[in-house]
Amino acid sequence: MDFASYIRDIEDFPKPGVNFKDITPLLNNPEALNKACDVLCGFASHMHVDKVVGVDSRGFIFAPLIASRIGAGFVPVRKSGKLPYTTISESYELEYGSETLEIHTDAIRKGEKVLVHDDVLATGGTASAVCKLVEKLGGEVVQCNFLIELTFLNGAKKLNGYQIEALLQY
């Protein structure tokens, strides 16, 4: 399937100079959505995964589907102040400020194998922070997978040492 044909470019969003990769056309097409999920699950088919971590907010689209299909639990990682139970946090730098992500302290047990999923790998800051959260709880990141990797932003360098898979690369 030509997944790229379901990705829409939005110029100057969310700010001038940014070419946003809009995944909503893919999500609107049941066949493309299902086949994209098949490929994302296939990336992890050769390994045991206990938990799939989805990153706030677009990582929440595929991560629960992947978890359900591969027989793993789903764990949300959210922006600061959005989770109701005891959390740990990790802050990271953005090009225009900083962000903090949180995870429930009981979401991952020591030794659990974890797949980290987000919609886009850009600069790598978000995914790197999520991997740190998983490891603080004693989990082992076995893969980071993404719907899209923006290779020109070199985000994979921040994830050096982790297995990275992406459905599409730009």
Automatic annotation (TrEMBL):
Catalytic reaction annotation: AMP + diphosphate = 5-phospho-alpha-D-ribose 1-diphosphate + adenine
E.C. numbers: 2.4.2.7
Signal peptide: none
Entry-linked InterPro entries: Ade_phspho_trans, PRTase-like, PRTase_dom, UPRTase/APRTase
Span of domain Phosphoribosyltransferase: 48-148
Protein family: Belongs to the purine/pyrimidine phosphoribosyltransferase family.
Subunit structure: Homodimer.
This protein's name: Adenine phosphoribosyltransferase
Organism: Flagellimonas alvinocaridis
Gene that this polypeptide is encoded by: apt
